[in-house]
Amino acid sequence: MAVYRLIAEAESHAHGVPVTEIHFHEVGTMDAVTDIAMVCMLMNRIAPDEVVVSPVHVGSGQVRCAHGILPVPAPATAFILKDVPVYGGNVRGELCTPTGAALLKYFATRFGSMPVMKMGAIGYGMGKKDFEAANCVRAILGETEDRTEQVLELSCNVDDMTAEQTGFAMECLFESGALDVYTVPVGMKKNRPGTLIRVVCRESDKEAMLALIFRHTTTLGVREARMQRYVLNRKVEELQTPYGIVHRKDSSGYGVKRSKYEYDDLAAIAKEKDMSLDGVRDMLDKHLRHE
After folding, report:
1. Dist. CA 121–CA 108, nearest whole Å
2. pLDDT by residue (tens digit) across 25-38?
3. pLDDT, tens digit, 9 for 90 and up, residues 51-73
4. What mean pLDDT do residues 224-252 have?
5. Is residue 59 within 8 Å of 91, Cβ to Cβ?
6. Which residues contact 201 (CB under 8 A, 6 or more apart)?
7. What is the C-alpha to C-alpha distance for residues 193 and 264, in angstroms, rounded to an integer?
8. pTM
């Protein structure tokens, strides 16, 4: 639904009508529905930590569609690919459709060159048209020793918000995909105590984060800083224990390994058994050591 929402917003912009009045043409056919549904299903099963997409080759020339003859990239495709690195090249034809653009935009963690990694699986999708270059898209699944990713830090200063309003804004930002949200006490003009609100997010979530910041805070402006984030590889293990299912977060990279039980699972067992959190951790450790 999120992928189709991207397409609907693009069609809405291209036609100048509300999203509720959009009629899907090519992207509403069963093969397009299948493409989107199956990619979403496969991405859910693969569950990659990061998705890196190379600059998108959109093609050149013109394309014939339900709306007539349009330039490449088509208006909806161009709208979806805003803020995405693209290039045209010498191939005459449409190489990226609204469906492909929306899938790339939704799932991409970042756009750039292939990271250093050990390749584990390689898949090809072949197009029916013959061009000078191979008409295919390639996906490579691999593992990196250490992970880095580009993130944005969005900041604003406020001096007229209550603690409840600030807390609510932070909750909304986290629920919408912010990687981190935190506040710092600051001194502002006229010697007023204020709050610096900082939101760390992915490039693909920038517009949504900006809209939420302006909606839920009193700021009149937001600053943007682009930075590199170094992160550990993370995965979640579902452990079967005599006390119920417990999730454990395992992290590794940069020469370190660490594990941590999910707090909500520990808290539920602690309340049920009338124990401390440390006591539940020790009990789980002993159980897993003897398995």
Report:
1. 18
2. 555 577 778 989 99
3. 999 999 988 887 776 667 888 88
4. 88
5. yes
6. 151, 152, 154, 177, 178, 179, 209
7. 35
8. 0.53
